[in-house]
Design a protein that fits this description.
The chain contains 10 helices and 8 strands. It has about 290 residues and is of the alpha+beta class. Among the domains are: about 50 residues; about 80 residues, Nucleic acid-binding proteins (OB fold (Dihydrolipoamide Acetyltransferase, E2P)), CATH 2.40.50.140; about 60 residues, no CATH class. The strands form 2 sheets. A 5-stranded mixed beta barrel has the order 2-3-4-6-5. The chain has a two-stranded antiparallel ribbon with strand order 1-8. A hairpin with a 4-residue loop joins strand 5 and strand 6. Helix 6 packs across helix 8. The chain is elongated. The two termini are about 50 Å apart.
């Protein structure tokens, strides 16, 4: 349990803002969603509303000023063309998206003024033989100044250097049909392309089932520890009935219901013990909790 190595202090502060203070915290910083960069989609088959990866050549690039300064590039493949639109950009992006450059872009397709377009897609320069990703690309919760690229690099490093023992014995895992803990963590950070992104994002995949089991187990064990600690503390033992209780009950213009009498007896029995009472009185509105 050490701070992530070889990370600048300013970046460590940004990591701390999202709850990452130790290397092990990186393992449990799980993705919000995934992008599929394992295959290319022909431009003419990309539908509005879909997030896809396309590859083509920049055939036109210009800066327009309506309604504001915008970089607009036309990307063309063998099937068709779409536009890449950037409202905030640096000169380096203009150079990257110059005419005749081959680009791979990932983003959501929508219909624009000139036709299908992506607004602020993730772009990179590629060659004819640039390989595709072999797993779904995770998208993590982050903060200002901490890029997805750097966060992925830190998490990948943590997966390589940290060995995590499974807190559940194998017999329990087999009986409950649970994946291994580290197997689940690794799969969620690097899911193979044949795993549907939908079952990862809605947390129905077996890897998420294991994570949810461990979260619930940790919560229950924590409650058990607190219960045990409270039971070890002393408290004054009070008599089950005293003259004040008897006098109050005698002055009521009504008799307690059977349920009220039952709960009152249980609470009275708890109060006679030399340990703090650990009880919550629960009931509907108007059920008589106040008098109890």
């Amino acid at each position: 349990m050490t701070a992530p190595a070889k990370i600048p202090p300013a970046t460590l502060a940004r990591l701390a803002r999202i709850g990452i203070r130790h290397r092990a915290d990186l393992l449990l910083h799980l993705p919000l969603r995934y992008e599929d960069e394992t295959h290319l989609t022909p431009i003419d088959t990309a539908q509005p509303g879909e997030t896809v990866q396309v590859q083509g050549v920049i055939t036109h690039a210009e800066i327009i000023f309506k309604p504001r300064r915008t970089l607009v590039c036309r990307l063309q493949d063998a099937s068709g063309e779409l536009y890449l639109r950037f409202l905030n950009f640096y000169p380096s992006l203009q150079h990257q998206l110059a005419v005749d450059k081959q680009i791979r872009a990932v983003g959501e397709v929508r219909m624009g003024y000139y036709g299908p377009e992506m607004v602020h897609p993730k772009c990179r320069s590629v060659g004819d033989g640039t390989p595709l990703q072999t797993s779904l690309t995770p998208v993590y919760p982050t903060t200002a100044g901490l890029s997805q690229t750097h966060l992925r690099k830190y998490i990948t490093n943590a997966l390589e250097v940290i060995a995590v023992a499974d807190p559940l014995p194998e017999c329990y895992r087999n009986n409950m049909n649970l994946l291994g803990f580290f197997e689940s963590i690794r799969l969620l950070h690097n899911p193979p392309p044949d795993v549907p992104a939908s079952c990862l994002e809605d947390k129905s995949h077996a890897a998420w089932r294991r994570i949810k089991f461990d979260e619930l187990l940790a919560q229950q064990l924590s409650m058990r520890v607190h219960h045990r600690d409270r039971s070890l503390r002393g408290a004054p033992a009070l008599p089950a009935q005293n003259r004040y209780t008897t006098a109050l009950l005698g002055k009521l213009p009504f008799a307690l219901t059977r349920a009220q009498q039952k709960v009152l007896a249980e609470i009275s029995a708890d109060l006679t013990k030399p340990q703090p009472m650990q009880r919550l009185l629960l009931g509907d509105v108007g059920s008589g909790k106040t008098i109890v």
